[in-house]
Amino acid sequence: MRSQNFIITELRIHSKCNEVYKKILKEDTYHFNQLDLVNYQEQQSLERSIFGKRVFIQAIVGKNGSGKSSVLEIIYRIINNFSYYILDGTQMKRVSAEPIYLIEELYADLDFIIDDVKCSFMVRDKSLGIIRGEEKFYFGNFDDDFFEFSDFKSNKNEGIVKLVSSFFYTIVTNYSFQSLITKDFEKDIAREFIGSKEKGYHSNGNWLDSLFRKNDGYVTPIVLNPYRDEGKIDLQKEYDLTLSRIAALLIHSKHSKKDLLSGYSLSTIQYKANHSHFLKKLFIKYNESDDSIHLTELMAAMVDKTSVASQIIQAYGFDITQFQNEDAVVPYAYLIYKTLSVLSKYAQFEAYINVPEIRKFGLEITEEQKIDLLAGISEIKTFKSHVNIKIYQTLNYINSYNNLIKAFNLEEYIPYKDKKRFGDIDDIIHRLPPPFFEQDIRLLRNENEEKDLPLSSLSSGERQFIYTIGTIVYHIKNLLSIQQSNRIRYRNVNLILDEVEICFHPEYQRQFIAQLLDLMDRLNLTRSCSFNILIVTHSPFILSDIPKNNILYLKDGKQYPDEGLINPFAANINDILYQSFFLEGGFMGEHAKNQIVSAVSALERIIKKQKVSVKSLWNKQSLLELIEMTGEPLLRENLFGLYTQAFDQPSYEDQLIAKDEEIDRLQRLLDKRNGGKS
């Protein structure tokens, strides 16, 4: 029986690989772990993984400039080219997404194991070879390395969907402002093709933008987080997008009596109508505009049985003849907007070519439009997934809570008796209010449960922690929500956490892996999915949770041998810092180190009766002050020994004895003054 594991094992870079892509990396093999790949199936230790069933965690460490980001970028390029070929060879389209570009002059392999089967992606310029156990096939041009490979182009769409589903989806998080900037990739040779016809060179890092601007229903097997527009992160937008994810996680954590964020629990969530924000998205404005659609026109369209808008409302089982007020229009307007948006945006609905544009919902529907529209809505109602969550939220609101119009809280929307019937986190998300309500998440500090506070009042590190967790869980749950047999359904997830400790206090760094594993267990994520988690980190606290055999040590672009290194798992933090991050300069801050070296030099010159430079900051008083503020006891004692020699002072030990004797003398005087009473 196969073990349902998933592990990224090696990256190989070949001599013909473009130097722009390699950067500091060498023509070499980079081992992410020390698995015995020859006798892999006999290694039963993986079945008893310290991280739990179906989870494998590894790390990349090294100084800044050692090649960590370069390794990841090669991986992203490989997956990008894999994406290009599977999209080119299937009927899957990215209707609302940027085109995928083929990156040329890339020569590299990525090896991995899925369910005990050794696999590999082999990129050779305009070709891609794939190995899966005994199977070998290639996409694109034939390459000499693919002599025993079969051409996969003869396979039908179903064959490619099945093939791709058997591989993995990569979720990347990187909140560094200096990473994944499009301009940094402008020298990449990336082209856009339509079939085999080349459209021309497309530099400026456009291939990277394609992985940010997706909206493709998880067809392309990689997503980069957070979204960047020409390298810039819109933090407010990220905050808004993350709120609903965090809300569901906090509700689930409270329901399971566990804290999502250590020291805090959910108090309530307050909701307030924000109809104007949504109406702007629907191009409805109250002021005159050439392209505006008046609210009165929308209301009229909804009650006109022949209109596109009315047909959508009727398809969901509603019969509208009039509206009491403008507020009552918004839920139905959102239902119309979101339905047409989903049907026009995602690949699984591309067969419904006659679905009208959003701006035409007031027009009379044609027979062809009606057939496709009703078929599309029927599919929306049949399959629950991340694509139609907001539609289900809106239907739930209209059916059960449309008396709550302006403002309400979580307890009013989902009474406690209903909360007892919560299923998993998907059930919670589907039952939350729709997006035309703003939410204010209120938390309680565990040590002070009398007054709640808004989520926005948390520290940057606390918010970063739950944003990161929220993003990870959001994408995993979306992947698992895809059930249709004709869709690509990834059940292996490659989670790349690049400098995940940014903004984290050391205590959060120390807890991160444990918290992530606990949440994955509580949400039953490993029931249907296997995970390879690759953490690129500068944190010794995170590294102390990972065994040495699961770590790629990098130095100057090369893999550093780990023979003789201390195993960081449960090791001393200082030892991990020194060996894993190559701190040849020790643990002391460079400025403090320079001050100590300068002071020692001055003391030695004084001892040797040599002249101290007039520019020197050191004199008897300043040297003593430096020694007294030195925190490390042994260093402080040695410095005082030099000071004693330089200025003919009593030794450090003698001074301590003298101080003790003086304290005893003063105590005796005090006792005598108090009549012998102590």
Summarize the structure.
InterPro entries: AAA_GajA/Old/RecF-like, Bact_Antivir_Def_Nuclease, P-loop_NTPase. The protein is built from 22 helices and 23 strands. It is of the alpha/beta class and about 675 residues long.
Task: Give structural notes.
A 7-stranded mixed beta sheet has the order 2-1-5-6-7-8-9, with helices on one face. The termini are far apart. About 1% of the residues have low confidence. The chain folds into 3 domains: 353 residues, no CATH class; 196 residues, no CATH class; 58 residues, no CATH class. The protein is an alpha/beta fold and 678 residues long. The protein has 22 helices and 23 strands.
Topology:
Elements: E1 6-13, H1 19-22, E2 29-31, E3 55-61, H2 68-89, E4 102-103, E5 107-114, E6 117-124, E7 127-132, E8 135-140, E9 150-151, H3 157-165, E10 169-173, E11 190-194, E12 197-201, H4 206-212, E13 222-225, E14 228-229, E15 232-233, H5 235-255, E16 264-273, H6 275-281, H7 295-303, H8 308-315, H9 329-345, H10 367-382, H11 389-400, E17 407-409, H12 410-413, H13 416-419, H14 425-431, E18 437-445, E19 448-454, H15 460-481, E20 492-498, H16 506-522, E21 530-536, H17 540-543, E22 551-555, E23 558-559, H18 573-580, H19 590-607, H20 620-629, H21 633-647, H22 652-673
Parallel strand pairs: 3-21, 3-22, 8-9, 10-13, 10-20, 20-21
Antiparallel strand pairs: 1-2, 1-5, 4-11, 5-6, 6-7, 7-8, 11-12, 14-15, 16-17, 16-18, 18-19, 22-23
Helix pairs in contact: 5-14, 5-15, 7-8, 8-10, 9-11, 15-16, 19-21, 20-21
